[in-house]
Amino acid sequence: MSFGEGRFVTDSVMIDVECAALGALAPGDTFEIGGVIYEVRGEPLRDAMRHVWKAEAREV
Fold first, then answer.
1. Which of 17, 27, 37, 52 is the S-S candidate for 47 at Cβ 3.0 to 4.6 Å?
2. Is 8 in contact with 48 (CB distance < 8 Å)?
3. Selection from 59, 55, 58, 53 nearest residue 22 by Cα
4. Of 51, 30, 47, 48, nearest to 39 (Cα)?
5. Rounded distance, CA 22 to CA 31, Å?
6. Is the dihedral of CA 10, 13, 14, 18 positive or negative?
7. Global pTM value
8. pLDDT, tens only, 42-59
9. CA angle at residue 23 from 31 to 60, to 5 degrees?
10. pLDDT digits (tens, 9 = 90+) for 16-26
């Protein structure tokens, strides 16, 4: 991510989850994928049709 003249580099993954399978999603929520725990960073967003949550997550 670039900001002005600076650049920020973070280790993160994007997670897409069906809204029907999950309901609500918020910063701090966690997922376990392949034995690795990921924590949602920032505010999750829904896709244009509001069927899928899109969230940035990091390994904890």
1. 52
2. no
3. 53
4. 30
5. 11
6. negative
7. 0.77
8. 999 999 999 999 999 999
9. 15
10. 999 999 889 99
Phi-psi domain of 56 (left: phi exceeds 0; alpha: psi -120 through 50; beta: other)? beta
Give the CA distances from residue 2 to residues 6, 9, 21, 38, 54, in Å, rounded to whole numbers and listed in that order: 6, 9, 34, 24, 21
Give bridge partners of residue 3 from the DSSP assignment.
Answer: 6
Amino acid at 1: M
22 in helix, strand or coil? helix
Name which of 10-14, 29-33, 51-55 the model is least confident about. Answer: 10-14
